[in-house]
Design goal:
The longest helix is centred in the N-terminal third of the chain and has 37 residues. This protein is elongated. The chain starts with a helix and ends with a strand. Strands 1, 2, 5, 6, 13, 14, 15, 16 and 17 form a nine-stranded mixed beta sheet that branches. It has a single domain, classed as Metallo-dependent phosphatases (Purple Acid Phosphatase, chain A, domain 2). The chain has 438 residues and is α/β, with parallel strands linked by helices.
């Protein structure tokens, strides 16, 4: 009996142990299988490459206040709108000083020639230099071309001058040289190209002739004291020399007044490029006549209607009067305009009455920021006279500002002529808006 109970007890114990062992093995097996499922299956080489993105920590739904505060502190400031530029107030201005024809006759060539064969024109302009240097822009009309020693130098009727003339002009304070006049083609194509090359070399701005179609269409634009000024130049003709120049080149080499459509295009281009004030230099009129003809007046009105603000005339070789008036342009703008029909000669060998004198015209371009206007400000002028004299058996030329030499500095005849020039010029030009500078 006891033996039978012992056997039953033994079987129960074995059964319990078996159940316990079975349960433990299944748990171990489950753990093993679960681990295997978490391992990557190496189907190809790419599966074995470590992917850093898999290592990124998945953010929890719960936010960390400390972390949020830290992020807020590290976050850069949002970009701020730049402060508005302070608009200028009051006024600004540009002073333009302009002279007439710069000529080099044969006696002037002889006077400028030095003992070593070189040429020096410096002395000619020394007396007017202080007045030119006052200007923001000093201008003059170069009524000659620049040649070379090899080609030679000549005077009337075909002017070809040494490049040292440009050195003297630059040294005297000139900034802009206009080249459209009836002597533009005196040196034919070479003369046009060499003149402009040398003007570039001496740092003198220029307009009126060109070396290419692109240069012809380029507007001379000068920005001074926050005012953009366009300068244009044209001539009535070129003494018939146009017939000996290649016609294709002629189409761009010289600006002619009879090409109205091109002038209109130039004025419009200047506006499109931002010009606030347009100056046009016109080579026109009757030689040696002290008053403008009707053609000059009519053409001036055409230019004003296009949008030109100021006209500086040349060619008559004597001074012609001015006109200042209010007009309405083609686009309906009402504005004040100014023209001097002829500035006369600033230097030449012409000794007849009225031809031996000229002037420096000073014109202010005024910009009013408060009124949002740009127009003509103060205008005055300085009468000049070409003093020709002999010293040490050699001719000399000086351009004298007449007002500085009214004190009988020279011989009786010279003193008398200086006083005559003052009276001739002031009686011809002075009016309610224009006076000679004392």
């Amino acid at each position: 009996m006891k033996s039978k109970k012992y056997k039953i007890l033994s079987l129960v114990i074995l059964l319990v142990i078996s159940l316990l062992l079975t349960a433990g093995c299944e748990q171990l097996l489950d753990r093993f299988i679960g681990y295997e499922q978490q391992l990557p299956t190496p189907n190809n080489e790419q599966d074995m490459i470590h992917n850093s993105e898999d290592d990124e920590e998945v953010p929890s739904d719960e936010s960390d206040p400390d972390m949020e505060e830290q992020i807020q502190e590290e976050k850069p400031d949002s970009p701020q709108e730049p402060p508005e530029e302070e608009k200028p107030t009051g006024t600004t201005s540009v002073k333009v000083s302009v002279v007439g024809d710069i000529m080099v006759h044969l006696n002037q060539l002889k006077a400028a020639k030095q003992s070593d064969g070189s040429y020096d024109f410096t002395q000619v302009f020394q007396d007017i230099k202080p007045y030119l240097e006052e200007a923001d822009i000093a201008m003059g009309n170069l009524e000659t071309t620049i040649s070379t020693d090899e080609i030679g130098y000549t005077a009337y009727p075909r002017f070809r001058s040494p490049e040292s003339l440009l050195s003297a002009l630059k040294g005297a304070g000139f900034d802009v040289i206009t080249t459209a006049n009836n002597h533009s083609l005196d040196g034919v194509e070479f003369g046009v190209i060499n003149t402009l090359d040398k003007l570039d070399e001496y740092g003198l701005l220029h307009t009126g002739t060109a070396r290419s179609p692109e240069e012809r269409d380029r507007i001379l634009m000068i920005e001074k004291n926050d005012i953009k000024i366009a300068i244009l130049a044209y001539t009535y003709g070129t003494n018939g020399m146009e017939s000996v120049v290649d016609q294709e080149k002629l189409s761009y080499m010289v600006n002619y007044l009879n090409d109205i459509s091109k002038i209109e295009e130039d004025v419009q281009r200047a506006k499109d490029e931002g010009a606030e004030f347009i100056i046009t230099c016109t080579h026109w009129g009757d030689e040696y006549v002290r008053n403008p003809n009707q053609s000059q007046k009519d053409f001036a009105d055409k230019l004003f209607a296009m949008g030109v603000d100021v006209i500086f005339g040349s060619h008559p070789h004597v001074i012609q009067p001015t006109e200042k008036k209010t007009i309405t342009t083609h686009d309906g703008q009402e504005k004040e305009v100014f023209v001097i029909y002829s500035l006369g000669n600033i230097v030449s060998n012409q000794r007849d009455r009225y031809r031996d004198s000229g002037l420096i015209l000073n014109l202010e371009i005024l910009k009013d920021y408060d009124k949002e206007t740009i127009g003509i400000g103060h205008i005055d002028y300085i009468p000049t006279w070409v003093y020709r004299y002999t010293e040490n058996n050699k001719l000399h030329y000086r351009i004298l500002p007449v007002k500085d030499f009214l004190d009988d500095s020279f011989d009786a005849a010279t003193n008398a002529r200086i006083k005559e020039v003052w009276n001739e010029t002031t009686s011809h030009l002075d009016n309610e808006y224009l006076k000679a500078r004392d």
